[in-house]
Design a protein that fits this description.
The chain is an alpha/beta fold. The protein has eight helices and eleven strands. The strands form two sheets. The protein has an eight-stranded parallel beta barrel with strand order 1-2-3-4-5-6-8-9, surrounded by four helices. It starts with a strand and ends with a helix.
């Protein structure tokens, strides 16, 4: 199972995640939340990402110029758009993009397949829990069964479903069995505090993953 570890703020955490088998490392490059990185810290984390592990920059409602500049400067493999970005923004970027779709943690209503099809040029779709107006890094999960819909699956950008939201070593195997994702994305579930990854939790996570 592919694993993206997101919201890293320290180079030693990036090296640990890579050593344990991470598929991708996510860096928060928008100025919001305790996991946000300035340029200098992002460069340090980027240098710690091992060859063969994807470097992902996470943005929310940022201008295309800023995304393109940081994608080039940091040699990002993917960008992740976690706001209300329009489909046209993806088309203006040279770097492939993952588009995030929030799912309310209480109602667990999946996005309309028609909305997914608007982002058909994306590398994939990431589904994350939303609590009120807050999405990403909330530590909350949602009912994964809402993703078990043939029409939704057929409309997935790139055919890739990435699952996020409240995942951790204790529930990741169950989440994978129910949602059948292309990859899983974890942040708070493997932390000792916001932005600080816990080596023991990371090790537990990779042991808990299905083959």
């Amino acid at each position: 199972m592919r694993v993206k570890i997101c919201g890293l703020t320290r180079d030693e955490d990036a090296r640990a995640a890579c050593d344990l088998g991470a598929w991708a490392i996510g860096m928060i490059l928008s100025r919001r939340g305790p996991r946000a990185l300035d340029r200098a810290r992002a460069e340090r984390v980027r240098r710690a990402i091992a060859p063969g592990v994807l470097a992902v920059g996470v943005f929310a409602d940022e201008p295309a110029e800023k995304i393109a500049e940081l994608a080039s400067a940091l040699s990002l493999d993917l960008v992740q758009l976690h706001g209300r970005e329009p489909p046209g923004l993806l088309e203006s970027l040279a770097t492939p993009a993952i588009k995030a779709f929030p799912i309310d943690a209480l109602s667990a209503r999946a996005p309309d397949p028609a909305e997914l099809r608007r982002f058909e040029r994306a590398f994939g779709a990431i589904f994350d829990a939303k609590v009120g107006e807050e999405t990403g890094g909330t530590g909350r999960s949602f009912d994964w069964s809402c993703l078990d819909d043939a029409a939704l699956r057929a409309a997935l950008p790139g055919g890739r479903l990435i699952l996020a939201g409240g995942l951790g070593p204790g529930n990741v195997a169950l989440a994978v069995s129910r949602a059948r994702p292309f990859a899983v994305d974890l942040a708070s579930g493997v932390e000792s505090s916001p932005g600080i990854k816990d080596r023991a939790k990371l090790e537990f996570l990779f042991r808990a993953l299905p083959a």
